């Protein structure tokens, strides 16, 4: 799960990670009042959306007066922000963060993720802050320093100092960076983060180390023990189809391709995506209706797939174990009756009640292509989507 920058900063503040003073606002008038109240020399107005790259896209503005804060906020709210992370559809801005403008001496990058192969947390730091770190990693990986932390021992002060020295810090700034890095690490562990990224972390003119930006991602599987984090969820920022799926108890992940997949079992869903790719196609989604799906759930799943305009073919790949093939067939038929299927439908059914399932589909009058096995059906789906 993702949260907004303003939420991340509030959280980090509790872990001794220094952040600029600021407050979230939902309208121009509110923003102006907040700015008057905060009374800074300089203000930064920042669009709050779950995507980075806002600076380049016009989502970060530095202004001098509360009146300007109000004006810039009015312009920003309701605007569609398109950054390299939002995709062409962009994200609508509905709130902004009003912050004290910082006097930036240097911008750094600081990030933490879990390195699964090493079974450690890796902390990455670079002098190349404020820019796309993926670009730095590609062009000059030596500019990124990595510290691996064994979680049973915890982050050691010498590791934080090594990061500070790598960034070229000296004097009091070293200890400030140590407090900053260990604070971020503690937040990462305590709140079950999967990613923590401060880009940029800055050294200010008066020698402070502060988080100018803050991105935190959390492990969904640990949210049950982090109710405070769960409460920060912003449904507006989440994929609407994925939310719908969650509500009806289906595992669904929206993807960029054009072949809709309806599958039972996460393993078969993964291999279905693989085999589509193997034949040169691109899946539009990952969808696991699960073992015990009802006709209603299958209908819902099928409607979700069809609601995606990118979908040019649907590939139903079912191995009926607990799941019965006739349930799947009934779901397909009822979804087709409700919303109509205008794209080619390729079905591969095997397992429990397969004869009944095939019979229902054959008698439904739907235009269905079948495959005798998964490979043949996948090849047909790719061909159908591309033609
Ligand atoms: P992102 O583009 O979505 O990652 O948003 P950031 O929060 O990283 O802001 C983008 C850039 O705006 C930063 O790299 C800074 O250069 C600039 N910026 C952000 N806050 C301030 C500030 O307080 N003062 C100044 N001068 N620039 C800022
Ligand atoms: Mn940033």
Cα(first) to Cα(last) distance is 37 Å
Kindly name the structural category. Answer: alpha+beta
- Approximate strand percentage: 25-35%
Number of helices: 14
- What hetero molecules are bound to the protein chains? guanosine-5'-diphosphate, manganese (II) ion
Rounded mean pLDDT is: 94
**Secondary structure: number of strands:** 18
List the uncertain runs.
Answer: none
Radius of gyration: 25 Å
Largest sheet: 6 strands, antiparallel
Percentage of helical residues? 25-40%
Taken from the alpha-carbon principal axes, the silhouette is: elongated
Structure characterization notes:
By secondary structure, the protein is an alpha+beta fold. It has 14 helices and 18 strands. It has helices at residues 5-13, 28-38, 54-57, 66-76, 133-139, 157-166, 172-190, 227-230, 240-248, 266-278, 295-306, 325-339, 354-363, 374-386, and strands at 22-25, 43-47, 60-63, 80-81, 91-92, 96-100, 104-115, 120-126, 144-149, 193-204, 209-211, 215-218, 251-254, 259-263, 285-288, 313-320, 345-351, 368-370. The strands form 5 sheets. Strands 7, 8, 9, 10, 11 and 12 form a 6-stranded antiparallel sheet that branches. Helix 2 (28-38) runs antiparallel to helix 4 (66-76) and helix 6 (157-166) packs across helix 7 (172-190). The structure holds guanosine-5'-diphosphate and manganese (II) ion. Residues 44, 46, 52-55, 60, 62, 101-102, 104, 107, 130, 199-200, 212-213 line the site of guanosine-5'-diphosphate.
